[in-house]
Write a structure and sequence with these properties.
The structure holds two protein chains of two kinds. By secondary structure, chain A is mainly β. In chain A, strand 5 and strand 6 form a beta hairpin. In chain B, the strands form two sheets. In chain B, strands 2, 4, 5, 9, 10 and 11 form a six-stranded mixed β-sheet that branches. A five-stranded antiparallel β-sheet of chain B has the order 1-3-8-7-6, with no helix packed on it. Chain B is globular. Chain B contains no helices and eleven strands. The chains are: A mainly beta, B mainly beta. Chains A and B meet through strand 4 and strand 5 of A and strand 4, strand 5 and strand 10 of B.
């Protein structure tokens, strides 16, 4: 069972470069999201989606774009990387109904460093 | 004030000890509550949901105190393998509240022999 798969696991960027973090899930989950995790700040929601073609902003959306063309994929794009975007990024998904509706399934994380 | 706050710890306890963590939330209308566990350099995983009546899963007990706006996690008979960071998560009380699960920064637990 693959669950939630993120790539790449590690990335170093220079300020101003752009890149895309990939996220795919094979659980047929309607909901997908991106969080960033920084020391002392916990997990902060960047963007989320409740289905193909539907996205919305979380707490810290500036500097990031998302799209949801399929149920399985939810890429996160950094338009012009800044040192403040150095962080660990987690993709997470869940079903929208049922007893496990509140349970988020996380990918293994992507460690991004912006120089 | 942060919406969800936790004591960062670390809590250093010997094996076999009982340890308790609290997590306070600022939105009195919050709907649902969870405890996640995160091992070092790993992804968070759901430990347990927190129900209004309290719930227990083996050595772990979660409780909700709506009047004082906090949730708690009690770990009995601590094991070395319990060493991890424990994150609380709260969903706001509005339509689609689950879509914006808010996490605390986590409490680190270190269990030593």
């Amino acid at each position: 069972n693959a669950g939630v798969t993120q790539t790449p696991k590690f990335q170093v960027l220079k300020t101003g470069q752009s890149m895309t973090l990939q996220c795919a899930q094979d659980m047929n989950h309607e909901y997908m999201s991106w969080y960033r995790q920084d020391p002392g700040m916990g997990l902060r929601l960047i963007h989320y989606s409740v289905g193909a073609g539907i996205t919305d902003q979380g707490e810290v959306p500036n500097g990031y774009n998302v799209s949801r063309s399929t149920t399985e994929d939810f890429p996160l794009r950094l338009l012009s990387a800044a040192p403040s975007q150095t962080s660990v990024y987690f993709c997470a998904s869940r079903g929208l109904a049922g007893v496990r509706a509140g349970e988020l399934f996380f990918g293994e994380g992507s460690r991004l460093t912006v120089l | 004030r942060k919406e969800v706050e936790q004591d960062p710890g670390p809590f250093n306890v010997p094996e076999g000890a009982t340890v308790a963590f609290n997590c306070t939330y600022s939105n009195s209308a919050s709907q649902s509550f969870f405890w996640y566990r995160q091992d070092c350099r790993k992804e968070p995983k759901l430990l347990m949901s927190v129900y209004s009546s309290g719930n227990e899963d083996g050595r772990f007990t979660a409780q909700l105190n709506r009047a004082s706006q906090y949730i708690s996690l009690l770990i009995r008979d601590s094991k070395l393998s319990d060493s991890a960071t424990y994150l609380c998560a709260v969903s706001p009380m509005f339509s689609g509240g689950y879509n914006k699960l808010i996490f605390g920064a986590g409490t680190r637990l270190a269990v030593h022999p």
